[in-house]
Amino acid sequence: MPETSLRILPPLHTRACIVGGGPAGMMLGYLLARTGVDVIVLERHADFFRDFRGDTIHPSTLELMHELGLIDEFLALPHEKAEHLVGRIYGETVTIADFTHLPVHCKYLVLMPQWDFLDFLARQALRYPHFRLLRQAVMTELIEDGERVVGVRADTPEGRLEVRADLVVGCDGRHTTVRERAGLETHKIGAPIDVLWFRVPRDPGTEQPTGGFIAPGSFFVTLNRGSYWQCGHVIPKGTLENLRAGGLEAWRDGLARLAPDLAEGLKSVASWDDVKLLTVEIDRMPRWYREGLLCIGDAAHAMSPVGGVGINLAIQDAVAASNLLAEALRGSRLSVDDLERVQRRREWPVRVTQRMQVAVQDEVISAVLSGQRTLADGLPLPVRMFQRFALLQRLPARLVGLGVRPEHVQTKEAA
User: Based on the structure, what is the number of domains in the chain?
Assistant: First the structure.
């Protein structure tokens, strides 16, 4: 749309303007509105449908739904449950994580398309008069008064919009515009892998559990989406063109040998256009805030898909931000110290989780993809220990299911 054709809309005023309607943005918007804080969420798309969105709703998030009194309504949505994560590793079936012992009300992962989860949060938030969700609103720049951020400008189908706010929250993901416009630094940690993302049909009667397949040179993840499997084929970073050069049929045949039950379904991947590249990044901002602005979720710390914990971290950030900022926002007393407290609360869990992800990527996934071990070598020692001692399966279940320092809702619903 040419600059001259954009109509200037009347400005809006709010306490908090959240840029991005992903898990962090929608959860924070809901929680703040629930406490009586005026909030506007700007979502750049017309809906939440994005194929790269993760599907796992963790026990920690289900516990938050319970604390908010939403769990029964949430679980009425179509979903699948996974009490265990099971993998076919070097030819043997291994239980990697057992969630049934976690100290929460829902002792399982829920597998649900993330667009359904976000739609659910939006419906709950819209019950409150303090909440507004503006779709197809693309944030273009920050509004600043000296060193302080006081709002944003966004392009919408109706015209150019200015939103003035006591706080702008960047929840716009790993390719964040907010972070760039704010001039905040990012430290790249790096990742040696990428993921090929595609789907294959699923027989509804199959008993195959959610999990994946690991063999020398191959790492293949399958997520149950009801009528189809959402599949992730992990590859060494930068090797997609080599795979493409070998031909689609050869690539499909390799996956079929790894996962014979999916062989017929893999034929539905008719061209490379059906396969999307998810570039894996791990990074972290040294400072998540400046006066009038805060970044959380992937905007502050992009996570690897290892463990599927990025969504969990984003939601935990949102809960912590609501707990620590709602009262100050209601009273127009927000300070930089308040924003620093959010980072101080959440930075340690992020650092620990990223260290674990890097260790798994470097010591486990990269070793598998390089083919250093063969089937004749048998299961790696840590996997043999998980198989022999069921008690050990509780450790990854806790790290994946609850994370490091899980948050709880401390705010009250406004009367």
Answer: 2
